[in-house]
Amino acid sequence: MLKTAIVAARDRQRLQEIAGILIGFGVNKVVDRLGLRAIPRLAWRSAPAVDLARLSQPERLRRAIEALGPTFVKLGQVLASRADLLAPQWTEELGKLHDKVAPLPWDVIRPQLEADLGAPPSEIFSEFDTNPIASASIAQVYRARLETGEEVIVKVRRPGLQKIIEADLRLLSHASRIVETEWPEMARYRPTEQMRHIANGLREELDLANEGRNCEMLAALFADRDDIVFPKIYWEYTSERVLVQEFVHGIPPTDTKRLEEAGLDRKILAQRGVDAFLQMALIEGIFHADPHPGNLLAMSGNRIAFIDFGIVGRLSQRRRSQLLILIGAMLQEDADGLMAVLLDWTGASNPDLTRLEAASQAFVTRHNGATLNLGLVLTDFMTMARENDLAMPTDLAILFKGLVTADGVMRQLDPAFDLFAAAGPTVRRTMRQQFSVKDLKGRFQGLATGLYGAASELPTLIHLMLVRLKQGRVTVEIELKGMDKLTRGIERAAARVAVGLVVAAFATQLAPRLMEHGTPAFATIGILVLTIGIGWILLLARNR
């Protein structure tokens, strides 16, 4: 309660605004659970006048989120992609959230831009159009031309935005902890973890220089391919609140008429686009997290350009391997494999396995033998997780959102597009890399190093244990029937483990180094030690 009071006092005005908007839109369950009705009504005059009778609960929430501003819009957009958390009527409504807002006047933008550039735009650019070509909740975008002739876009963060977002993030983070404590049924959704991810993503998006770094990092992955294009960043003009990058001339994938007039092959474009996205996700582990039609452009020569890198997703090597296993389970109609991956991802400790097994079998049956629509498959997969009280990890939810979005864009380019079929070459290439002899050798060497380290530390650990036993002040004697037999079993097991570790470490680390000397005596010693060790293990096993 003390922490709640401190948070409320620090961001009192913003909290009043939030409470007023939520109450005005009739989002009563959230208001009551979070205790917002107790807030003084000083700022409730901002509550909108809405005919609530005409709006469903999901519509009320969506309208309230739009009124609350960029932080809540981002939260709503994340939730719209979480079919594993919310029922369809909620995700469909939240999917209508847009990130387009009325642009701020140039007189409001100009002072901040001049401060960041260190001079008026007229002194930096030979041309600068003060009418924005795009306006979103985070930034506004202008078109300009450098003195050297290059066409660029100038992305400017909206003034005063960071203070509001930081206040929102503090309030939402605190609210997520309240939800986790007060609503036990919500704990499985890991609201604190979800909020932490949203906060990190928003802070990255606020830093426009970070967007430039993301662009260059992804561009470096495709340096050897001329069919995938990324805009050039002009760092001499870029900072936290301003991004200046190359203006990319391209055609949106939704503009069928212009694509045909340009003579572009939509099938090739779709294949190249998804191949690039999968290379980012499956091979490199970093990918464009929002590949919607506005962030992909078709260029001459059937090239694909990626733009807008405010949000990128990252996948660990382990997660990428799990994703390959999931794709394999789907393609092979393996219900058990599907269930195993889902349990591993969600970390569920006490699921209803009979129910989950039936749901997994029904899932593979539904998608059996037909051309797979990835968007439907992944949405169905997350729905299955939700219906079985399982929640997806955040990093995978981001990837799934990206895959569903990419699948939709590619289907606009090619209505017969099958992402699973198109993914085949990339998946096979990734499988060869991850399970190649070189990769397996590397993993084995890592295991051997661990075994060698454990074996080398064993004497120290035993010595430390004996010292601590000697220093003990309390002696406890327990006599149980069969304890002697159990003790002897434990001793023999410990001996086998210790010998096994030493032998394994010798065989994998020390023996090869001895052999490198080329001296027969060393080779003989190595073989002798290895033989004795194996014989000892077999003898211990026989006498157990």
Automatic annotation (TrEMBL):
Belongs to the protein kinase superfamily. ADCK protein kinase family. PROSITE patterns: PROTEIN_KINASE_DOM (PS50011). GO terms for molecular function: ATP binding; protein kinase activity. The keyword Secreted does not apply. It comes from the Bacteria. Residues 127-486 form the Protein kinase domain. Keywords: Membrane, Transmembrane, Transmembrane helix. InterPro entries: ABC1_dom, Kinase-like_dom_sf, Prot_kinase_dom, UbiB_kinase. The chain crosses the membrane at residues 521-541. The keyword Lipid biosynthesis does not apply. PANTHER family: CHAPERONE-ACTIVITY OF BC1 COMPLEX CABC1 -RELATED (PTHR10566), PROTEIN ACTIVITY OF BC1 COMPLEX KINASE 7, CHLOROPLASTIC (PTHR10566:SF113). This is ABC transporter. Pfam families: ABC1 (PF03109).
